Structure to design on (477 residues):
């Protein structure tokens, strides 16, 4: 832990434009940073063009009108910002503590000009000048004591994150620690149902004509976290059948995960006492009704592999198409679970729905408004909510008619073939939009220029405390 302080000295030499702002940027649980107001305005307009497309001109006019009504100027216009005394070429930041306690740091070109503007247009806010910056907020005491506050650069976790991402203060960043998350969950009445251990998230954001990139580091500075991550990477997976090579072309969403599934499930149990995902309720319903444990014989029996594909969801007609495989460590235990479950269903005077493909038995289990069709091939528990889709995939497996991985995105191809620890996701945005119906249906016009999204995440190395996550949003044009 003492070595983490060394990173402070490393990054002092890389502050450049940011040198001044770091003197006043306090160690708040939520911090937003932009390299300059000029850059911020350029990127806001770029993103608005991408997401609003044909409605860009109208939305831009509405935002500019709202800005003039609220602030007396168009904050999206560099010349108007310069005219009121703001330096549009230096960094700015927002630090938030809780409720209405927080402040924005704005670089100053002229104190006299900016003071005149603030006195006239921002009467409900307090402000205080610090060197080449002005801090604006509603809490006067916080502004007066700002120089006494611990600075963000004195936070070990923050500096550790900077080092991990080799951040140079030339991109946007978002800093969040778990005290902020706790405040949010408390306000929604779920704090007691969700365990939020102290942790942090640092997210650097960059944008260009090809993509938007989010480079994220999430962690906990503790030896227990290091041991947890090391254990998470310990799994003994054997992929006898590469399931992913046999899925249909052009899936909407693909997830490939390789990690210690038993440990991951225990961690999920610890975090989500509210059971937001409904996994524990599903497991409990089976155990209470049929006296068999899907947690013990399936969830804790994983060899480290999970592949999940989502194709479509029609909420209006209760049609969901999702399928995948869960790698098994002990196949015999999994088969015994299925046999015991079927025996318990029959004993309960219920019907066991079964069918056979290539001499392998498959079954149907109802889950709410849907059904899960499942069976075991080699050391894979194969499952699907769509029987026709499952039949098609199984036929391809036994006929050796693969081919998806030849054209699959590199992020999926690489994580599948090499079994690298972590989780990777690919989302075909246009395909997803076309395959959603009902309340979850999204407005296609908002995403017209977004082609696909990739997410790559992996546990840290032996000297790390968290997760490395890289998200890319690729533009259509």
């Amino acid at each position: 832990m003492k070595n983490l302080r060394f990173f402070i000295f490393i990054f002092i030499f890389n502050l450049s434009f940011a040198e001044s702002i770091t003197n006043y940027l306090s160690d708040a649980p939520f911090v937003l940073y932009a390299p300059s107001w000029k850059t911020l305005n350029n990127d806001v307009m770029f993103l608005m063009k991408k997401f609003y497309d044909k409605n860009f001109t109208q939305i831009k006019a509405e935002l500019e009108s709202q800005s003039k009504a609220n602030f007396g100027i168009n904050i999206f216009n560099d010349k108007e910002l310069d005219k009121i005394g703001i330096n549009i070429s230096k960094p700015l930041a927002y630090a938030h503590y809780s409720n209405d306690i927080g402040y924005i740091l704005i670089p100053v070109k002229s104190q006299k000009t900016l003071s005149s503007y603030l006195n006239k247009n921002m009467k409900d806010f307090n402000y205080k000048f610090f060197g080449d910056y002005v801090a604006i907020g509603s809490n006067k005491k916080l502004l007066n004591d700002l120089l006494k506050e611990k600075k963000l650069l004195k936070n070990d976790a923050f500096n550790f994150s900077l080092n991990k991402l080799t951040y140079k203060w030339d991109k946007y960043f978002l800093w969040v620690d778990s005290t902020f998350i706790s405040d949010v969950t408390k306000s929604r009445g779920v704090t007691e149902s969700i365990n939020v251990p102290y942790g942090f998230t640092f997210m650097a954001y960059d944008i260009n004509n090809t993509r938007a990139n989010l480079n994220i580091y999430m962690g906990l500075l503790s030896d227990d976290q290091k041991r947890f991550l090391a254990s998470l990477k310990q799994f003994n997976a054997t992929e006898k059948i590469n399931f992913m090579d046999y899925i249909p072309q052009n899936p909407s969403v693909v997830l490939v995960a390789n990690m210690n599934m038993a440990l991951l499930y225990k961690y999920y149990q610890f975090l989500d006492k509210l059971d937001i995902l409904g996994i524990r309720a599903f497991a409990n319903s089976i155990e209470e009704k049929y006296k068999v444990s899907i947690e013990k014989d399936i969830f804790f029996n994983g060899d480290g592999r999970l592949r999940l594909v989502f194709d479509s969801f029609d909420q209006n007609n209760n049609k969901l198409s999702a399928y995948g495989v869960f790698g098994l460590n002990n196949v015999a235990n999994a088969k015994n679970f299925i046999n015991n479950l079927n025996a318990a269903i029959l004993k309960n005077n219920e019907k066991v729905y079964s069918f056979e493909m290539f001499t392998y038995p498959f079954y149907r289990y109802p889950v709410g408004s849907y059904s899960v069709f499942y069976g075991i091939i080699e050391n894979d528990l194969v499952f699907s909510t769509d029987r026709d889709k499952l039949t098609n995939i199984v036929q391809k497996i036994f006929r050796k008619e693969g081919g998806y991985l030849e054209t699959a995105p590199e992020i999926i191809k690489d994580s599948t073939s090499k079994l690298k620890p972590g989780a990777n996701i690919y989302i075909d945005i246009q395909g997803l939009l076309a395959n959603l119906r009902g309340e979850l249906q999204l407005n296609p016009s908002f995403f017209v220029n977004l082609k696909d999204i990739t997410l790559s995440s992996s546990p840290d190395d032996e000297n790390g405390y968290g997760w490395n996550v890289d998200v890319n949003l690729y533009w259509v044009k």
In short: Residues 1-17 have pLDDT under 50 and may be disordered. The two ends are 46 Å apart (CA to CA). Residues 331-347 form the longest helix (17 residues). The chain has 17 helices and 19 strands.
